[in-house]
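Today's session is about reading a structure prediction critically. Students often jump straight to the picture, but the first step is always the sequence itself: look for stretches that repeat, for charged clusters, for runs of hydrophobic residues. Only then move on to the predicted structure, which in these notes is written as discrete structure tokens rather than atom positions. Here is the chain we will use throughout the hour.
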Amino acid sequence: MAQDTAPQNGTPPEEGRPVRRFVQRVLRELLIPFLAIVTAFILSGFFIIVTDVQVVNAFTRIPRRVAVPFTDPVNEISLEEALRYQPNEVVVGNTVRVDGRMLRVVEEVDDPETEIALTEARELYPALGPGVTIYLNFFSKPDVGLRAAWNAVRTAYGALFEGSIGNPGRMVAAVRAWLAGDPSLMPTAFYPITESLVAATPYILVGLAVALSFRAGLFNIGAEGQYFVGGLTSVLMGYSIEGLPLLIHLPLMLLAGIVGAGLWGAIPGLLKATTGAHEVINTIMMNYIAFALSDWLLSGPMMRPGGFRPISPAIAPSATLPQLFPNPIRLHAGFFLALASAAVVYWLLFRTTIGFELRSVGANPRAARYAGMSITRNYVLAMFLSGGLAGLAAATDISGLIGYMPNAFSAGYGFDSIALALLGRSHPVGVVLAALLFGTLRAGATRMQSAAQIPVDIIEILQAMVIIFIAAPEIIRALYRLRQRRPEGEPETIVPSEGALS
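Below is the predicted structure for this chain, in token form.
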């Protein structure tokens, strides 16, 4: 007689498992990057502590003025109260006449940050008297150094948060005023978070460029040079043509950036496929060519007429991306164009035959060739698409923000994109999240420097540590005692395979 294997509650055994597996996989993928970011912030906090002068002084020489606790109101009077009777003739330890009584002037510990009680001071130095200044060290007053260290980290990260997201109190007040009919506070309150989105826009596109090449088994180090070339071709299209409507001129300018940078990126892909020349070496060398080409063009043929600086002419108004809000908010339509590009890259990689071939070639070129896939075509296509995304990033920066191309154009987006691709696990969604993180860090760095006197270089240190922890996940697994578990059907590494790099 067959036994009924269904569960007692009547729920099918497979119901809910796909969702649970999906959630578990997402959590698994996000765990290492999340812990890497947390660890990088903790270690950066130590850098903040050791570079803060006040913290160093608190750990080495802690000045404290010796005060006497006010304990006998019959025969004593506090210094603060005595100064009200005789403002210019009061000295701690002397007597003062108050209402016919002679009272001894003593000093209370009003500020524990700068004062120390006489009884406590005499435990360290028995011969001390009131009014003198002593210097404590960390071991005699450990709470002072620890409190100073905590305040330094809290102030720095608080300023970083306020500079990148905004002041929550001001944002709530602005929303309330807006609901009451007064929108004047909105631009100031929400300016920081919009600046983070502005900074994240090129990060998203250039991060997608490197992530796509990673998926195809290629290590594209040339995103910075492709960014420059895309800027040159897009700005040329932007200022050299006049009289076109916005719906024609703007797409042409963006397309010029995509095609110009894409063709520049396809050259290392073609050399890799036909001659076996390593794409890392080729892309690095082509970076230098792109930088030199930019210097020459902006100082000569493309230099703004009548100018003395190496900058291009301003693009036409018809080639400008729409601004989403009035000044001073600089958020433009390029941010949503970047999000749309991430969606297109996801669809291309995981929902099309082209994407399947790109990922197959990246995972195992020999097996892909045996299956009939063209290695040459996929390498060239991957590098063209990768360069095109970097060029689109440059075009959106020019069209949405500055309106021309200066010589010192990039803020290092092409090199930071490697960290973005690693942090985002070469997945479009992960790259977008990583780009938002890097955008907030870059936007808040200036505020952190002005409010907490912390150099902006600490942000580069933080980003570098994130790269280290993501590139070497065994460090995170060892620190947090995580077990290594490889998902079924998924390669553990997110960088190009060994066969692709050989």
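Discussion point for the tutorial: Residues 62-136 form one domain.
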